[in-house]
Amino acid sequence: MWYDLAWETIRWFNYLVIGYYVVANGVYGVFVWSSIGLTVRHLIRIRYGGYGAIAEAQTTPPVSVLVPAYNEDVNIVQSVQALLNLNYPAHEVIVINDGSTDETLNRLIAEFQLRPVDLIYRRHLPTQPVRRFYTNPYIPGLTVLDKRHGGKADALNAGINVARAPYFCSVDADSILEYDALVRLVRPIVESPDPNAIVAVGGIVRVVNGSEVRDGRVSKVALPRDALSMLQIVEYLRSFLVGRTGWGAWNSLLIISGTFSLFHKRTVLEAGGYDTGSVTEDMELVLRLHRVLLAKRRPYRIVFVQDPICWTEAPTTLQMLARQRRRWHRGMVESLFVHRGMLFNPRYRQIGWFAVPYHLFVESLGPVIELGGYLVVGLSYAMGLVDVQFLMLFFTLAILIGVFFSVSAIVLEEMSYRRYVRWRDFLRLIAYGVIENFGYRQLLAWWRLQALAQVITQRRWEYVAKRGFQKKPVKPATATGQERA
Q1: pLDDT tens column, 340-388
Q2: Domain count of the fold of the chain
Q3: What are phi and psi of 112, to 5 degrees?
Q4: Cα 192 to Cα 198, 212, 381, 396, 442, distances in angstroms
Q5: Is there a domain that residue 242 lies in?
């Protein structure tokens, strides 16, 4: 009796595994081809209409760059230097010191010769109390808020309250933007016949590990030596160049990296700002924007830009990487649960019928099926349900499909933006596109499975420590404010 029940359970789980792989790989296969077409059109558009006109145009919208910072003293100075030097006609940089307990605030004060000032603070969004504002009259584009610790979402809400521009851009303190990053990001808005209809824009995030950073810029792009960083580079290429480009093509993008994203301020205020109770406040906000705007039947677009424009530090230890991925997956699951009313709801069109179901059943529950699939297929072989040829075919196809998607993203990078110019770098990326399927992707699935358990058992999010862009601590500048202006 128990044997028949086990046999039937395993048989149906095999069907589930096959269905999962067909749906997941089928969607990603469509995204590969659509990404190629979109990237080619994007490159042609850039070739015949560069970014210079946008950077110089009087109609280019002003942007407030928000930098939430909590214990970021190893990176904060170089990040702010890069942001102040961006090639953009009108932008301000607002750093929100979210109750840091390290030298974050002191480094900013020393480096940029800041002084406390009184500013009008309108609390459009509720936040933890703001203690003080700091500015330098010789650096009019920089404002620093010092507030009580409330988390990243609370810090961003405080920044929105201070922001003066119609658009705001959220940037992580451990990230560095390229010189024309904002110009590239606002291009869809400038080119749109209805700029206000574009409520959010996301850009590509690249791993800075291995590259040289000087004076707040990536001075030399290079691959890291350690395997863990290399594996993450391949993963980022696949996720952004294929995954998010594909979702953006269908106006079904649910994830815009909080590391670097642009939002229409008035629309975000209408939606209530960032949710301070969410672990991944960026995804929750995007989901809420879809929900609010579709409910109001207001035309809108959430766009993804394929340009490589933001560099971020990736974890270099398994412990920190595990914390990061558990937090990401847990946040996605919680955000989908909060907005579960969109699931298969015709009111929300392609988001309710396609994007939310895919992220719920394929992305969120994927670790259960992936890891369970390895176990069940092995049991099926042991029980005689499948022969050795099927067993080998299953594992071979699973590996080859994963390799195909990774290599496709790497080739797309080489054909288009080509940040890694040496043939040796290209071959290393291809090699790691193969290697990641033997252990790394299974490890990611295991951490995502742990995140599903944390949704129920743990409310505290896990902190990911940073090493910094340089090994030596940043020394306070000796230049005066006049010399810097």
Answers
A1: 999 999 999 999 999 999 999 999 999 998 888 888 877 777 777 777 7
A2: 1
A3: -105, 10
A4: 8, 36, 56, 45, 42
A5: yes
